[in-house]
Amino acid sequence: MQRQMRTLVLAAAISLSVSLKAEFKASAEEGKKLYEANNCGSCHAMDKKVVGPALRGVTERRSEEWLIKWIRNNEAFRKSGDADANALYKEYGGAAMNIFENLSPDQVKNILEYIKTAPKPAAPKATAAVEGDSGKSDSNSLYILLALIGIFVIVLIILGKVRNTLRRLAAEQDGTADDDAKVSFVKRLLPEKLAKMNPTVLTVFTVVILGGIGFVWSYKFGITEVGVQKGYAPTQPIAYSHKLHAGDLKIDCKYCHIGVEESKSATIPSLNICMNCHKGVQKASTAEGDEISPQIAKIYKALDYNPEKIGAEAFGPNPKPIRWVRIHNLPDHAYFNHSQHVKVAGLACQTCHGPIEKMEVVQQWSSLQMGWCIDCHRNAGIDAANNNYYAALHEKAAKDLKDHKNKSQYFGPDGKVKITPAMNGGLECAKCHY
Amino acid sequence: MSNNIKYWKGEEELAKDPAFLAARKNEFPDALPLDEVLGEEGVELNSNRRDFLKFFGFSVTAVALAACYKTKVRHAVPYLVKPDDVTPGVASYYSSTCGSCSTACGVEVKVREGRPIKVDGNPRSTVSKGGLCATGQAGILSLYDTERLANPVANGAETADWTKIDKMVSDRLKETEMSKGRIVILSSTIHSPSTLKSIADFKSKFTTAEHITYDAISYSGIISANKDDFGKAAIPAYKFENAELIVSFGADFLGTWISPVEFTKGYVANRIPTAGKTMSKHIQFESNLSMTGTNADERFPMKASKELLYLGSLYNYLAEKAGNKQIAVPQNGELAGNSIKKTAELLWNAKGKSLVISGSNNTAAQKLVNGINMLLENYGKTIDISNHSNQFKGVDTDTDNLLNDLSAGKVSAIIFYNTNPVYSHNAKWADAIKKASLSVSFSSTKDETASVCQFICPDNHYLESWGDAEPKAGEYHFMQPTISNVFNTRQAQLSLLAWAEATPKAENDPFASKAILSQKLSASPYYIYIKSNWATQLSSNEAFNKALHDGVWSSVAESKPVSYAGDVTILTNEINESGKSIGTDLILYSQVYLKDGAHGNNPWLHELPDPVSKVTWDNYVSLPKSLAHKINFKEGDTVNVKVGNTTLKNVPAMVQPGQANETVGLALGYGRTAAGKVGGSKEKGFDAVGISAWPLISSKNGSRSWFANGVEITMGDESYALAQTQTHHSIEGRDLVREASYSDWKKNPTAGNDKEKTHIYTIWEKRDYRKDGSPNHLWAMAIDLNACTGCGSCVVSCSIENNVPVVGREEIRLRREMTWIRIDRYYSFANTSKEIDGNYVTREKEIGQIDKADKGDFSHWENIKVVHQPMMCQHCSQAPCETVCPVLATTHSTEGLNQMTYNRCIGTKYCGNNCPYKVRRFNWFRYNDNDKFDFHFNNPLGKMVINPDVTVRTRGVMEKCSFCVQRIQEGKLKAKREGKSPNEVMVETACQRACPANAIVFGDLHNPDSEISKLYKNERAFGVLEEINVQSSVKYLTKIRNTETI
Question: At what angle do helices B162-178 and B492-499 cross, to 10 degrees?
Answer without folding.
Answer: 60
